Amino acid sequence: MKKILYLECKTGAAGDMLMGALYGLLTEEQKVLFLEKLNAISEEVCVIPQEICKQGIGGVHMKVEINGEEEGIAHTHEHSHCAEHSHEEAHMHSHEDDHEHAHHHEGAQIHNHHHHEDEHVHVHHHGHHAHTSVASILEKISVLDMSDSVKKNAEGIYRNIAAAESKVHQTDMEQIHFHEVGSVDALIDVVGSCLALELLGIDEVQASPVCVGNGTVRCAHGILPVPAPATAEIIKGMPVYCSSFDGELLTPTGAAILKYFVETYTKEMHMEIEEIGYGFGTKDFAQLSCVRAFLGYQK
After folding, report:
1. Compositionally biased, Basic and acidic residues: which spans (predicted)?
2. In 3D, which of 112, 175, 106, 179 has the Cα closest to residue 140?
3. Is 125 left (phi over 0), alpha (psi -120 to 50) or beta?
4. E strand or H helix at 153, and its extent?
5. N- to C-terminal Cα distance for the chain?
6. pLDDT value at position 179?
7. pLDDT mean by block of 10 residues, the chain; 299 residues
């Protein structure tokens, strides 16, 4: 029989929502290993799975702390930045419609750092959003204590984001500098999702058509339509639709993870369900906002 993962994205998807839903499918032993691996990325990083209830439904929110402070205090739109764009633009991120881990005004910049003869990711806080290049992100991933498969998949996801951003900004990938997408908690979301999928041993990833949201989103380039340009580029070829209410439901990181892993999009599941995981983000709507992950077998 074929082991199937079906991702229900009726209220979009963000990196933390996907990671939380996948974490909910792991066995207790796998959860211990998962957290050990993620928390070994840096001494400054602490990933804490929180069992919470929204609208009476229990699920998981993946809390990421940097030096004891939670990432995700203010809601921001994750995006990249062309190298020539002004520093003032980098501060214009705040809006209320993002699911993703948000980033407070002091952006986090991460660097490779030798500690006890091992490679770690070291986090520095600055009074501005960090500009993280594609090469820098790929280098950080390459030194992680993860399997080659996890690192390859994480690198592939970031390359897809960079390719979309380079097309939107009409510049080379080498000139793209990430902001929120390049932050340490976004890196945790991507690597964590890749690690969870490896632990689950999935044969095929399927998903529902994806809701992108509606209305507009405020980011460094002003007020833009939903889906934001980079997200719109990433979701080419994916079945998507707009919501009946305003809000950015699908983030660039969420879109990139789905684009990389999902092989089949279908409105109907055809499997014998074994486990269900609910992944929550930080934003609430009138409709329950979550990614629901179904694990099962298909004959």
Report:
1. 76-108
2. 112
3. beta
4. helix 148-169
5. 5
6. 54
7. 97 97 98 97 92 96 88 46 33 36 32 37 42 84 97 96 85 64 78 98 98 88 88 97 93 96 96 98 88 96
Distance CA 186, CA 192 (A): 10
pLDDT at 97: 39
pTM score, whole prediction: 0.81
Copy the structure tokens of residue 115: 């500690």
Q: Give the C-alpha separation, 283 to 290, whole Å.
A: 10
Instruction: Name residues whose C-beta falls within 8 Å of residue 76's C-beta, 6 or more positions apart in sequence.
Output: 93, 94, 95, 98, 100, 102, 103, 180
One-letter amino acid of 201: G
Candidates 265, 278, 269; CA nearest to 296 is: 269
| Letter string b/e over residues 70-90, b meaning 16 or more CB atoms within 10 A of that residue's CB | bbbeebbbbbbbbeeeeeebb
Q: Which two three-digit tokens encode residue 234? A: 């990433």
Q: Name beta bridge partners: 71.
A: none
Cα(175)–Cα(179) distance, integer angstroms = 13
The one-letter code for the residue type at 264 is: T
Q: At which residue do the structure tokens 């998981």 appear?
A: 60
Query: What pLDDT shows up at residue 42?
Result: 87
- 287 and 26 in contact (C-beta within 8 Å)? no
User: Is the separation of the CB atoms in 5 and 294 below 8 Å?
Assistant: yes
Residue 254, helix vs strand vs coil: helix
- pLDDT on residue 280: 97
